[in-house]
Amino acid sequence: MKIKPIDFLVIIAYLVLVTVIGIILKKQAQKSKNDYMLGGRSMPFWMLGISNASGMFDISGTVWMVSIMFVYGVKSIWLPWLWPVFNQIFMMVYLSVWLRRSNVSTGAEWMLTRFGNKKDALPSHKAIIAFALLSCLGFMAYGFIGLGKFIEIFIPWHFVQPYLSFRIPSDYAAHFYGVIFTLFTVFYSLLGGMKSIVWADMIHYAIMVFVSVIIAVIAMMALHNAQALPVPVGWNNIFFGKELNLDWSTRIPEVNEKIRANGFSPFGYFFALMTAKGILASLAGPIPSYDMQKILSARTPREAALMSMIVNVVLLPTRYLLIIGVTILGLLFYKDLNISIADKKDFERILPAVLNTYIPSGLLGLVLVGLMGAFMGTFAGTFNAAQAYLMNDIYLKSFNPKASNKQISRMNYLLGLVVVTISILLGFLAKDVNTILQWIVSALFGGYIASNVLKWHWWRFNSSGFFWGMLSGIICALAAPYIFQGTVPLFYFPIILLISTVGAVAGSLLTPPTDFETLKNFYKTVRPWGFWGPVLAAVKAEDPLFSPNQNFKWDMFNVLIGTAAQTSITALPVFLVLLMPTQTAIAAIILAVSTLILWKTWYQKLPDN
Q1: CA nearest 55: which of 384, 309, 311, 377?
Q2: pLDDT tens digit string along 305-323?
Q3: Nearest of 124, 173, 134, 129 to residue 153 by alpha carbon
Q4: Of 146, 256, 390, 553, which has the fewest beta carbons less than 10 angstroms from its beta carbon?
Q5: Are 232 and 248 in contact (CB under 8 A)?
Q6: Any bridge partners for residue 344, and if so which?
Q7: Coil, strand or helix at 426
Q8: 3-state class of 499 per DSSP?
Q9: Is residue 143 a contact partner of residue 375, using CB atoms and an 8 Å limit?
């Protein structure tokens, strides 16, 4: 076992520290509902941004990104657009401002500002609550089991079992580890609410910066000594054509099998479809999870936009220093790594294999703390979001609207325990419900886009349209894997989008429009651009001096420049660690020019409210 007593001490010190944070911030979190769920909207944007970035530095995503960097090389920088990562640019440029202007506490409460609180508005409110809770529970369950499996690689179960007074089957070792770290996470987030989550994330991020820089330096020294990487032609080229044209036959033949299994070819068409889906998903805005809660926690709309900007600045360079560093070590010492399962190479084991083999004791403890902290931050943020929906949109709206702060505080604890218990039980049942939950998450996201794009941009879109758009998209996404067996989900996404759009438009046009007073209040408060002609006319009839949002062209221009800046800030550390000075200089110049343009066209024009 590579992990040493000093590594255990580092891990224990971190767990004690985050526990103390929760205890210290307990009283402040109990002041009010907003103090618990949103940190009292008193935290500066840079803290919220670092916290949000820290939560996105998750184990599963980092493991995947190392594996695709190993297989696809520098071209892998484009593949996270599947999520899509550039949604942070859309939020930075304008969507965070729109969302924060509503002054609500959750995404479900936002629905009431858009569609009103009358009976005809209930379908959208209930649909978004169901979406939020299912996605939160799904993420928490799989984060729980994913962390356990990650820890099990470094601390094999046969070393731990003799010290326990009870027997646990080895099949449930990952669950045991998952429960231990989940309980620490729940403790500090349950006591201290949003503020304790943000402070714990700050500590975790500082650790990850240190770890990422050290690993990148180790990789650069190893690459300098080796002088070249054992990779095919084109691996270190960020550009691509219709096909990937990466041939690993004379290097690591198993990689060619991985490329075929992924189904990303022809890469040119795949990239075009991935980008189109990403733009639509970004126009829809953030999903109702921890990302949205951080935006709603900002002090002002301006700071909400700056918070989303900070996420890109602090997350991408740090994460990619770690990713490219581990990838280089994995390539140079591939023959010495054990990444096989049942005689088959699993490239998603490269990250833990490299860490377990080439990272010295002490630093390994910090690496594990950093990656575990990522899980804890993601879990805690998602946990807080689930609590917020249960408390704000179910308990306070339907059961006890006049609850006192003391009642709210007690109910927060109770609901928190319910949420974490359900997520742990789902984690224990993962072997049985894995496929079902994968479908649920895929279906929820498949049905999300059409309704959530239309809600911002079309005045005639109503609560019924939202409900039927979501429902038709979800049903289609559930059925698609059976109809298009063996097909990459991205390739049948256009069909899901078409059907969910038809459901959303038909559901809206076949039912009465949203109450005009609700629409006018929403339009005046949020000030979106889009197809709002009749509402704008009604608002100007009451207030001839009202000025509509005419920033569509500027916003889209800034999105384009922002995406170029985001791509260059991602590529810069990769080229730097790969010892490619020309490409590093080009990426730095693109980043500098993009930043200067955004300073003039975005930052200086940010609204104060």
Answers
A1: 377
A2: 999 999 999 999 999 999 9
A3: 173
A4: 553
A5: yes
A6: 341
A7: helix
A8: helix
A9: yes
